[in-house]
Amino acid sequence: MPVIQMNSNELEELKKNIAAGGLKKIPTKSEHESMRFENPSLIVYTSGKVVYDEKLEGLVHGVLEKAPDFDYVIGTDETGKGEWYGPLVVTCVALKPCEIDELRKLGVRDSKTLKKDALARIARNLVKMGFARTSLVLMPKTYNKQYEEFKKEGKTLNDMMAWAHVRVIKDLTSKLEYKKARVIIDKFDAEKTDFRLKGLDKANLEIVQKSHAESEVPVAAASILAKYVFERRVDELNRNFGVDLRNCEPKDVRDVLPEVAKMHFKNVGKYTKTTLNGKDEKKHTT
Question: What are the C-alpha distances in Å from 254 to residues 145, 184, 281?
Answer without folding.
Answer: 18, 39, 8
